[in-house]
Amino acid sequence: MKNRRVGLWLIGAWGGVSATAVLGLAAWKRNLTDGTSMVTMLPLFDALDLDGPDAFVVGGHDIRQSSFVDAVQDLHRRSNVFDASLIDACKPQLEEWGANVRPGTILNAGAAIAKLADNPEANLADTPRAVIERIQADLQKFKADNKLDQVLVLNVSSTEPPFAIGESHQSMPKFLRALEARQNMIPASSMYAWAAIDLGMPYINFTPSLGASFVAALELVQERKTVTGGKDGKTGETLMKSVLAPMFALRNFRILSWVGHNIFGNRDGLVLDDPANKESKIRTKDQLIQQIVGYKPQTHVSIEYIESLDDWKTAWDHIHFQGFLGTKMIMQFIWQGCDSILAAPLVLDIARLTLFAHRRGEVGVLRQLACFFKSPMGVEEHDFFEQFRMLEEYVRAV
Predict the structure, then answer these.
(1) Domains in the chain and their CATH numbers?
(2) For residue 1, is pLDDT > 60?
(3) pTM above 0.70, yes or no
(4) Alpha-carbon distances of 107 from 7, 100, 158, 212, 323, rounded to whole Å
(5) Model confidence pLDDT, tens digit, residues 28-39
């Protein structure tokens, strides 16, 4: 549909991943960039009625006071990404979309994230119910003001600490009773998720945070006939693991140990410097080797905050494996990339595919998006090639 208008609502709007995705969308709209690094620009997807850049309107929530222009200029200064002329050319669009961003919430987001908040409105509501109602009011206003056909809520905020789920999360009735009793039983990521899904809007979790990955939220997805997916975008070291581990399995090498050491210095790195937040990230990074090879080698993942690296991250992996006649050998690789540049195109891919699925009337977890995530909801398969085959089969089927 040529005149379709869709909303992309980003949780963590002023962050590096979000701002880079928005700059990319604005540049694409002006024919200032091509489709390099966007999966949905491959010929496989040509026959799908995916949204082009002209269809999108952007908004979001954030707990900090900033703007899309400030965020991309900051990345340009600190990490030497983007061309200054590109930012200037897209500035009017960034300012227009930035006007749609509203104050987020730090309720139950954890101490490390709360320290980042400098917007006083981020701490206004004191119960999950009040926060959910405020988020819903923002989403409804965004949709109405911009005359949007659809709104997708996509979480690209900082990683929350692990959140223990209990009996109140196991069904919608139990969850709603706890919510009405004003209990603080969900983290901020799940408040955004519940708010969106309850309005029938798709919700995607690009972070390791809880989001919609509990039974009551998934029941609500079915009840409201919408879609969800995630978790934790797969952009760097874990992507390499999901590509290399199948090679070891298919060549029948036995992996003895796999050690991955990660260093980076952006705001996400600062949050992950907190041991509680780091635990959430390590859980999603350290699970796939065993699933792919069918046994459990010794594994270790470390994440360290190195301030001077800014948005550039380095992963060094050491793989000790056994070959023919019991001979032990070693493979090492170094992955160096710009965190936001790696993640942003996937945000646009996921947005296009999710909006497409929602328009088709699909309901539930979007399993076909597994190749984009470290911990894909509804999918136990971690082999990247098997995951991508799921996406190929979906595209050919529809």
Answers:
(1) 6-233+341-397 (3.40.50.720), 237-337 (3.30.360.10)
(2) no
(3) yes
(4) 25, 22, 14, 17, 51
(5) 999 999 999 999
